[in-house]
Design brief:
NAD-dependent epimerase/dehydratase family protein; NAD(P)-bd_dom; Rossmann fold; NAD(P)-bd_dom_sf; 340 residues; ComplexI_NDUFA9_subunit; protein-containing complex binding; alpha/beta
């Protein structure tokens, strides 16, 4: 399990353990305190850019979950490429039988119209799928749940701004999916027969992104009128949202860029192939309600839709600085030299 302490991995590991699997997780910092379930798994040191460490981590395993997405730094495309190449070589060397990769939805447009982070994820998928292992890729768009980057952007923008200012180009359709449904699909990907393929994964509801913002505001009991603003450049919107939220800025900018296209599923085969018979997906409204649940003292009993101890400090609503202070920071970020 790579990315075991990330948002998805940190919820998937205990699910696998509870269902009787032996799990080996990786960490790039062995001195860091492990998550609440770390006494139940085997942890090894691994930097995805160190080919020898990647090879050692894959020795003797039946399957690899690849939950690494590098959206930090200008060279994230090369970093993603090198990490995936190291993993593919390790899978070949040790005869790993299966790779499960969580990626992003790929809109049906020419490759040169894709955002950099979607194009990079697609390249990673191609590299991992080039091995003899059965490689199952799940492509998801907006993950719903406390701690999810997409959900935290929605929550923090809605809670911190009295108006929802929406660029006129941000009318694309999105198909959110609850994290509990993604976890179930990831589990199903361990045993689905080959050959290698990708699955689009999304919940039962499709809507324009502004409607998703409205739905959140209504369920969070917020009054947030929407105002459409024309001619706002994508980079400016990404910078502003990144400054107004506690989510890592470059991650926000990459997500905003992807909203130029509809992010909806092209097929729903995953409901047949990866989910238990009779399984019901959560709708958007129920996903939001469960995501807003208060923190539970005992993480083993907590709803994975809600906050968990290993989530980053910027989740669960972020820090408590006033929105005005964040707006000042946003202004500084787009007006160089304005320090006072």
């Amino acid at each position: 399990m790579t990315g075991a302490t990330g948002y998805v991995g940190g919820r998937l590991v205990p699910l696998l353990l509870d269902r009787g699997h032996e799990v080996r997780t990786t960490t790039s910092d062995p001195s860091k305190e492990g998550p609440w379930w770390s006494d139940r798994d085997e942890t090894v040191e691994m930097d995805i850019l160190d080919a020898d460490q990647v090879a050692a981590a894959c020795e003797g395993v039946d399957a690899v979950y690849y939950l690494i997405h590098g959206m930090k730094g200008e060279d994230f495309v090369e970093t993603d490429r090198q990490g995936a190449t190291n993993m593919a070589e390790a899978v070949r060397a040790h005869g790993v039988g299966r790779v499960v990769y969580l990626s992003g939805l790929v809109p049906p447009v020419d490759h040169d119209e894709l955002s950099r982070h979607i194009a990079s994820r697609l390249e990673v998928e191609e590299i991992l799928s080039s091995t003899p292992a059965v490689t199952i890729t799940l492509r998801a768009a907006v993950l719903m749940g406390s701690g999810s980057t997409s959900f935290e952007v929605i929550r923090q923008v809605s809670e911190r701004l009295p108006l929802q200012t929406v660029p006129d180009w941000m009318r694309s359709q999105v198909q959110p999916i609850a994290i509990v449904d993604v976890l179930e699909a990831l589990y199903g990907a361990l045993s689905v027969p080959g050959p290698s393929r990708h699955y689009d994964v999304g919940g039962p509801d499709r809507m324009p992104y502004p409607e998703l913002l409205e739905t959140y505001a209504d369920l969070a009991d917020l009054t947030r009128p929407q105002v459409t603003i024309p001619l706002l450049p994508t980079q400016l919107v990404g910078t502003l949202v990144g400054s107004l939220t506690d989510v890592p800025a470059q991650t926000v900018e990459s997500l905003i860029e992807s909203l130029h296209h509809d992010m909806v599923c092209g097929e729903d085969d995953f409901t047949r192939d990866l989910l238990p018979e009779g399984y019901e997906l959560l709708g958007v409204e129920e996903s939001i309600r469960r995501s807003l649940a208060p923190r539970t003292a005992e993480p083993a009993q907590a709803d994975p839709m809600g906050p968990l101890p290993h989530d980053p400090a910027w989740t669960d609503g972020g820090d408590a600085r006033p929105a005005v202070a964040k707006a000042v920071d946003a202004a500084k970020s787009i007006l160089p030299g304005q320090d006072d």
